[in-house]
Amino acid sequence: MLVYSKIKSLKDKISSLKKGTHIGFVPTMGALHKGHLSLIKRAVKENDIVVVSIFVNPTQFDKKEDLVNYPKTIDTDLSLLKSVHCDIVFTPTANEIYDNNISSQDFDFDGLEFQMEGKFREGHFNGVGTIVKRLFEIVTPHNAYFGEKDFQQLQIIRKMVHKNKMPVKIIGCEIYRENDGLAMSSRNTRLSEKHRKAAPFIYKTLTQVKSKFNTESISEIKNWVIKEFKKQPLLTLEYFEIADEETLKPATKVDAKYKYRAFIAVFAGKIRLIDNISL
Ligand code: AMP
User: Fold this and answer.
1) From the CA of 186, how far away is ligand 1's center (Å)?
2) How high is the mean pLDDT of the chain?
3) Are 26 and 40 in contact (CB under 8 A)?
4) What does the alpha-carbon distance between residue 148 and residue 175 come to, in Å, rounded to a whole number?
């Protein structure tokens, strides 16, 4: 497994590959867990060579505290990547990526950016768009893998690729969960013991939402979720939304022509957790 931190070295390596070599790419922020590894394993199966980036992108953090406290486990990450047969790891510094100008480009994602996460994390998706576009230019992948865990991000990247006619196929991968249902996340390691115990309630609620979806109205379901979270002393609901999978606009009633998903963001103490489920 090769590890590069310089753009030039990585680009030289990529241009030395035999013509027609299929490159799979998995961008990450490190602190890798089985969720990340499920994306990488799929990329290994579907491509000739797999590049994984580890970069905690400063421009997508709206809270400095979250950026500073983001877990960093580079040695463990590298051995995990080796164990799943990753070929190349890219670990740039912020200055290498941003050339001493750490700022985001402004994007128009046709309104996807104003829903849910966009309302609560200012500038987040401009930061995501900026880094993913930059990494795509450097890595030039044929296929890029993103988790449905960050479903809004996945749809935004699909939109960016489509609007800019970028030559990469975006592949969405299922959410990988702990045995108790909690969606795996690098942030889970920052949960206190009691918050970790309380957190599976999030997915439990989503599964109940799924079963209510056929029989109850959207406003009934929303009110029920709000009420359930009020009974949880360790969890604070930030938002719960049922939205159209394509436009991410909140649904008010159900039309059989469209697909819907329930989205949720919850604070467990100071740690913000997100999850979603297809309905
Ligand atoms: P992150 O390191 O949090 O930026 O995540 C890197 C990629 O892994 C993103 O595409 C995430 O959506 C994906 N990912 C993170 N957690 C999970 C999970 N539990 N299941 C599936 N994909 C995930």
Assistant:
1) 8
2) 97
3) yes
4) 6
